[in-house]
Amino acid sequence: MGDLITAILLGIVEGITEFLPVSSTGHLILATELLGYAAEKWAVFNIAIQPGAILAIVLIYWRTFWNAFTGLFRWDPESVAFVRNLLIAFIPAVVLGLAFGDHIELLLENAVVVAWALIAGGIAILVVEKLAKTTDAGGVANVTFKTSAWIGVIQCLAMIPGVSRSGATILGAMAMGVDRKTAAEFSFFLALPTLTGATVLQLFKHRAELTADDFGLIGVGMLVSFVVAWIVVKAFLAVVTRYGFAPFAWYRIVAGTAALIWLTYR
Question: What pLDDT shows up at residue 107?
Fold first, then answer.
């Protein structure tokens, strides 16, 4: 029962934080520390439940994905550009993930790195929000080849736990002039290949360590993260449209500072 409750709690954390610019991996690591769970035991679980949150995006934006898929058969320019941009942005994560995967895994157990990254990321959000000059890109398909490539490069910063994959991609896009809504949707859609790839890689690397019970807990975590992410994503765009990303920046700074103090003096 204890492991089941842990899986549910971590699934809730994943669902809430995966698509917000606050770092889902960072929050899962801090939650593991705060609640006294064995970090090494739950590290693979934290990555393996990400497809639940991804499924929420697929279903919320199913028309967009369906139109892109069917448009490819007609070689529709907009559909081709949509898929091209996501693939271009995905490539840097593949290259660096395969090259430095073992080093990245070591960081997944370091809560102090997470705390500092939360603070630094919060400051970065405030700076970009103030200085970025954006224009309506007209959707992911209309983002340029060059901008898509740079978004992919910037996404790699999120391999440092606490940076936030969604935060890095959204801010990277905005820094290059992409409007908030398109930047957020680019980040959502890019999650599909990126998080799926990371999950498959982790499950393959640790396949010998996983038991039937582990897969059962992963299933529970996926289900919970799916339901929570569905709710959060719909609310997120409304908040960003009205208030921008500053509330998330201040949250990161406060949460990171509190975590750093707790980790130092516990």
Answer: 60
